[in-house]
Amino acid sequence: MPTSTYYRLPEEKRQRLMEACWAECGRSRFSEVSINRIIAAAHIPRGSFYQYFTDKEDLIRFLLEDMRQYFIALIRDILLSCGGDLLALPVRAFDHLVRPRGEPDPMLGRFVRVLQLNQGIDTQIFLSEGQSFLPQPLWEVVDTGRLRRQDREFADHVFHLMCAVLAFAVAGVLKDPGQWQRQREILQARVDLVRNGCAAPTGPHPEEETT
What we know:
By secondary structure, the protein is mainly alpha-helical. The chain is 60% helix and 0% strand. It contains 10 helices and no strands. 19% of the residues are buried.
């Protein structure tokens, strides 16, 4: 992680460095990221970079953690805005992450580019903590009274399902921006299926009924 020297940098210089780092990670695989290109774009001496980060791997870990914290904070804010309702999360998150014309949230754009360049990266690292897919900051604001069960394991399953349907909808828009409204409608329909249940009422199937 960054040294204390990094955090003492003036905001403008720190921002310029981060923009250079993200620009490099947006065009190169992690294994091919060039510190020389970063320092040239950020207009800092090579020695200065190593006052901020131990090495390239240290920088990449910091960027991924920064991305992770961004998405956790975003989802937490959305959950708070809808009273902790996990089932209201996907559509509200969709409206934030992709605009009606298909423009992605800037950090989402970076996330997609990272995935494209680094095939096989484990996407769950961006949210999961240990055995739970639902991070603690999100669990703290979930209204479990809206769920059939109030334990964290059940909330974790619901959150996983909501992230899955959200990801499919967002991917559909990124592939074809003209599908924004259609993908939103499909997303809402899938959330409603989870909210209301998919199984038929308990009882004999028609073919099992006797006359």
